[in-house]
Amino acid sequence: MSDVATRLLETQGAVARSARDVGREPSSVTLVAVSKTMPEAVILPALDAGQRVFGENYVQEAKAKWPALRERFPDVELHMIGPLQSNKAREAVELFDVIQSLDRESLAKELAREIARCGRAPRLFVQVNTGDEPQKGGVSPSKIDAFLDTCRVHHGLEIEGLMCIPPAQDQPSPHFGLLAKIAARHGLSGLSMGMSADYEAAIQLGATHVRVGSAIFGARSTPSPLAGEGGA
Ligand SMILES: *Cc1c(COP(=O)(O)O)cnc(C)c1O
To answer: What is the pLDDT of residues 81-100, one digit of tens each?
Structure first.
């Protein structure tokens, strides 16, 4: 078995164990395999092993890789988890099944327009900047209530859940707890939190989606050739 397939199975097992540890059904947690910067040859073993949910950070990179893979694996579910420029909203709506990085009104407006235009509605998560880091995308916790109202009332967008990326230097759990609290207050069922280093803690705190890259595909040695597009 390939290294990728082995690590994928280990991660799937750890996700299921973490869920059971806190009395949750393993099926209540979706493993999003983050394949940014990874070429098709590295992604294929994961597809062959049955993985179907993938995350990408860059529209152009995803557009270059996934249409061909999808012809062979039509049931793939693709998540956009990186910063999204408003002028890429059209391509993102056409390509992704879930957009997790909705974080400002200009983008909400563009997504609403493109959803109406192309009759395809990706599921939406709002990214919350739980650490209020200036360099990071996401809505401040102090503005999230108003932002969710704006999305729903002014742009007619249905929001499924929230996503966060805790500050690298912090313990992640307080950030996961805060995200869960905001989601509960708004009756949102989706919680995308937890990456390779901390997905088990995130599952304990209610994550419905964990975004795991390096633990499955190995270290990302080179940045994406398209990183200039803007990304985490
Ligand atoms: C790259 C990335 C991940 C995956 O990170 P790993 O530490 O490799 O698991 C998860 N979420 C986002 C938003 C990312 O940009």
So the answer is: 999 999 999 999 999 999 99
DSSP-assigned letters across all residues of 92-150: HHHH-SEEEEE-SHHHHHHHHHHHHHHT---EEEEEE-TT--TTS-SB-TTTHHHHHHI
The closest residue, in CA terms, to atom 5 on ligand 1 is: 213
CA–centroid distance, residue 211 to ligand 1 (Å): 6
Contact status, residue 91 vs residue 118, Cβ threshold 8 Å: no
Distance 195 CA to ligand 1 centre (A): 6
Neighbouring residues of 169: CB distance < 8 A, sequence distance ≥ 6: none
Residue found by looking up tokens 């579910």 in the block: 77
Between the alpha carbon of residue 73 and those of residues 48, 55, 190, the distances in Å are 9, 15, 25
pTM over 0.85: yes
Question: At 20, is the secondary structure helix, strand, or coil?
Answer: helix
Neighbours of 191 (CB within 10 A): 27
Which atom in ligand 1 lies closest to the alpha carbon of residue 232?
Answer: 15
Nearest CA among 153, 149, 131 for reference residue 140? 131
Pull the structure tokens for residue 218.
């190995």
Beta bridge partner(s), residue 164: 128
Please, are residues 175 and 183 in contact by the beta-carbon 8 Å criterion? Answer: no
Q: Which structure tokens are listed for 99?
A: 């957009």
